[in-house]
Each structure stands twice: as C-alpha cells, then as structure tokens.
Amino acid sequence: MAMKGGGDGELNAEINVTPLVDVMLVLLIIFMITAPLMNNTGVQLDLPQVSAQNIEDPAGKLPLSIKADKTVYLGGTQVTWSDLKAKLQANERVKKESELYIEADGKLPYEVVVAAMAIAKDAGVQKVMMLTDPSKNLTPADLDKNIPPPKTSP
Q: Environment class of residue 91 by beta-carbon count within 10 Å: exposed (0-12), middle (13-18) or buried (19+)?
C-alpha cells in the first residue's frame, strides 16, 4: 500500500496495482507455456469398431417420395403436384408433428426437390428432412469423375 501525503496534511491510502499486474502477467505467461504441454496426458483407448444398423422409428415416418419420373408419393399414395399442398394441409400427421421426410431419386434435378420442399413449407410443415440411403456412399474419387481438373495459375 502506498501512502501519499496531501497538501493539507491528510494521508490518502491507495492500492498500488503495479505489482499485482506484474504478478498476473507472469502467471499468464506461465499458463500459456504450460497449457500446450498438458495435451499429451490423455489415455490411449482402443475403441471397438462396429457397424451399427439403422434404427427404425417405431411410429414410422411420413415420407414424401419423388421418383425419377417426377411422380410424387405421400406416405405410399401417389398424389399430383398440384394437389400436394392440399394433401399435406389435410394430413393429420403433418398437422400433429409438423414434420416431413423427403426421399428423392438421386437423378432428379435439384430444382424438383427444392420445389417439393417449398410446397411443404407453404403447407405449414415446420421441419423438412431428407432421407438418405447409407448404402450408397460416394467417395471423393467417384465425385471427381468426369470433372476437369482445376486450372492452375502460372
């Protein structure tokens, strides 16, 4: 604690924070140096590798299926694109759960799937999710086929 003398004979007691700041900076530097060294203290674990099966929803999902020829099926029943919004609005499961699962053929143009998603949103569906087939795994090499390599600048 430092004491300053006032001009009128009174003493002012003020805390000198300079040593406190110095100590805090030294501690900060020590922690910055030692923190990366503490990462190597983990325990090596060999976790088992398993192939898990898909868990089916017991209540079932309400799928909106779009085939390669652009035909639409709501829960297994074929509907027309113009009636899709009305059918979704009238569907009790959509009203109750407000969610819809879309499964589309991989050869469909992107705009067809987006149009189905937009119709579902217009019908009041809050959650639109995509169903995928995990058996059809594409590797990066598969995706790079028939694509020209990127141009490199000289």
A: middle
Distance of CA 75 to the CA centre of its chain: 27
pLDDT in tens, 127-148: 888 877 666 666 777 777 777 7
Write down the pTM of the prediction.
0.53
User: How many domains, the chain?
Assistant: 2
CATH classification of the domain holding 79: 3.30.420.270
10 Å CB burial of residue 66 (0-12, 13-18, 19+) is: buried
Phi, psi angles (nearest 5°) of residue 100: -145, 140
| 79 lies in the same domain as 125 | yes
124 and 71 share one domain: yes
State the Cα–Cα distance between residues 89 and 104, nearest whole angstrom.
21
Percent of the chain with pLDDT over 70: 76
Domain range enclosing 96: 63-130
CA pair distance 83, 97, nearest whole angstrom: 20
Structure letter (DSSP) for residue 37: G
